[in-house]
Design a protein that fits this description.
Shape: globular
Number of helices: 5
Oligomer: single chain
Distance between the termini: 40 Å
Helix content: 10-25%
Largest sheet: 6 strands, mixed
Structural class: alpha+beta
Length: 309
């Protein structure tokens, strides 16, 4: 099923609206199974090897590769009062292995720093939504807390094939993330994309954890871009998608967020440079609560719950 996406040119840009939901959906990784995801997490924690992503069992279900439930667990100490994180802890983004940051060697850290410096040069080139749209980027879905608004290239660039991020890839991110959709809204981050058969080697080091999405409702937008009215990873049925004139894509390829824009960096405590979400991208009231997925189609620019109040 995944391979069919590679031969549909129009669909290439339809999978990039990375607006997560509160619910993960099940699906097989783009060539990597749950066993491989578990092995990948162990490699990050123990050996730091970012190259071994082969699947141990091609028939394995991908459920184990999804996020661990951090809710009430038997035996957990509940003596301390819960901290109100205003909904931040509810945010997830795609299917990926456990995100465990590892210390890098001095050589790897220097090489990674050189890569990230290029992304900051790109940020200086596209500081606002107006700059991105002038360069051919188009909005792909609404503003979602933690994820911002993604603007995506429609010209076929930004589609890494070999899974190794080089200087050309760095200068052509598939998506640029902004703080909204007004022309003067500012850049906050990037989303890089890969068609690699297995989880990409990606950036130097082992801390770039790539993800994929399943059951994404997509449709052509009036401005020539791509819309994802229900975001990504929502429990969307074919019937729901058809009601808004869209098509249901069962699975995307690999993606990774990069938070290197000055002023929008993510601390290691919150996931680091390649975190799945950015706490700085809150709703106007400072929370991270989103509308129910069924209401997203009626709020194409912003799905913050506070915006609909």
């Amino acid at each position: 099923m995944r391979r069919s996406f590679l031969i549909v040119p129009f669909a290439l840009a339809l999978v990039f609206a990375a607006c997560g939901s509160d619910d993960d959906t099940e699906g097989d990784s783009p060539s990597t199974t749950a066993d491989a995801a578990d092995d990948h997490a162990a490699e990050h924690a123990e050996s730091g090897d970012h190259d071994e992503h082969a699947a141990d069992d091609p028939d394995a279900d991908a459920t184990d590769a999804d996020h661990v439930d951090t809710g009430d667990m038997e035996g957990m100490d509940h003596g301390e009062p819960a901290v109100d994180d205003k909904g931040l802890g509810e945010l997830v983004n795609g299917h990926h292995s456990d995100m465990v940051l590892a210390d890098l060697s001095a050589a790897d850290q220097a090489a990674l720093d050189a890569q990230l410096a290029i992304t900051r040069e790109v940020a200086a080139t596209y500081p606002t939504v107006a700059d991105a749209t002038a360069a051919g980027y188009r909005r792909a879905g609404p503003y979602s807390p933690g994820l911002g608004t993604h603007y995506t290239l429609q010209n076929g660039k930004g589609l890494n094939v070999d899974g190794i991020v080089d200087d050309t890839d760095l200068r052509e991110p598939l998506s640029i993330i902004y703080t909204g959709s007004d022309p003067d809204d500012e850049i906050a981050g990037f989303m890089y994309y890969s068609f690699a058969a297995e989880e990409p080697v990606g950036f130097v080091g082992t801390n770039d954890f790539w993800h994929y999405h399943t059951n994404v409702c997509i449709k052509a937008a009036a401005d020539g871009g791509i819309d994802s009215p229900f975001g990504a990873d929502a429990e969307v049925t074919e019937a729901q998608c058809a009601e808004v004139g869209g098509s249901l894509m069962q699975q995307t390829q690999w993606m990774v967020h990069v938070w290197t824009v000055p002023g929008w960096e993510v601390s290691d405590e919150d996931g680091g440079t390649f975190a799945e979400v950015n706490p700085g991208l809150a709703c106007p009231d400072g929370t991270y609560y989103r509308l129910p997925v069924d209401d997203w189609a009626e709020h194409p620019l912003n799905v913050c719950k506070s915006e609909a109040a």
